[in-house]
Amino acid sequence: MNLAEVFAVRRDAVKRRWSCLRSGIAFGWPFGHGGQYFFLYAGVFLVARAAGRCLVNKLTIVGAGLVGEAAAQIIARDELCRELVLMDVQGELAQGKALDVWQAAVESGSDTRVVGGSMAELLQGSELVVITAGVPRKPGQSRQDVLSINLPILDGIMQDINRHAPAATVLVVSNPVDVLTYRACSLSPLGRGRVFGQAGVLDTARMKCFIAEETGFSARDITALVLGGHGDSMVPLMRYCQIGSVPLSHFLTDEQIERIVERTRKGGGEILGLKKMGSACDAPGVAIAQMVDAIAHGRNRILPAVAVLEGEYGRTGIAMGVPCVLAQEGIARVIELPLDAQEQAMFDHSADQVVRDIAEMQAS
Ligand code: 2OP
Predict the structure, then answer these.
(1) pLDDT tens readout for residues 98-133
(2) Of these residues, 33, 164, 230, 349, which one is catalytic?
(3) CA-CA-CA-CA torsion sign (43, 49, 55, 57)
(4) Which pTM value belongs to this model?
(5) Which residues are near ligand 1 (CB < 6 Å)?
(6) Yes or no: domain 58-197 corresponds to CATH 2.30.290.10
């Protein structure tokens, strides 16, 4: 759906509510001013709601595993789309989870409808598709170790998207996310602004968590930024971290900061090692929902996203985490931050790893 169509949908919703408002006032007439005011206030509320509501009509999550389900819960609860589809090769599992998510959303006062199934036709009309399908890594494995299983799965999904929802914006979450985002973008005609991945929002949340723990300050006041590949060589940019606008170095020693950096880099592995049976799902679900929210509301948020680079940071032919402006149309802009020599060296180290991973994918 292009911008004009999105506005047309919203305009129609406002028109419908406005016409209800006029009928309401007319209906309230015999009840005197009280009746009229009641319908007037109710109508104004509904018109305002229609004007400010979600912009995404249909969103599909491909992969009804734990991450897909966690994201679906928040997306449905927060009414980030009107219709949410949970798609999975295990159709009945997806149907069951969809019913569960829908019923939970209804309890939260949401009108988002949720359906599930396995048929690719369910993608039809989706404006946004989130890909969480594939196997998670096991303890001791790297994200790249699941490439041979997840690559053909992603290829099949991209084929289905190109066939049934060719205009859909695509958010890749499955691992190895940098490599699979690069692949998805190369299989789509839409370009890097419409096909990108989630990793940095999650990594940044992890780092904020560790900073809050180390300092005892509210996580609300912490701003942080993680760039690079979604692996152990990711680049937490401590110079860009602040607590209540005060640089992090004011509160923490170099050793403390180094500990946070290391823990952030291995944050996914730490959870995997403890859970053993599966990797993180709740925080990735929230990270997906944050990106969906930014798109659904056209917020122009500056968030890290896995984006195909076109010369930024001195790189092409690669997808990795960089700060982006996330708007209604997807990535509106990649932000190129000035890096000092040490940060650039860490970025290059991480990028070189992703280049090797992409080369492995291309050779397979
Ligand atoms: C993580 O870092 C699964 O890659 C995901 O937890």
Answers:
(1) 999 999 999 999 999 999 999 999 999 999 999 999
(2) 230
(3) negative
(4) 0.86
(5) 143, 175, 202, 230, 268, 271, 279-280, 284
(6) no
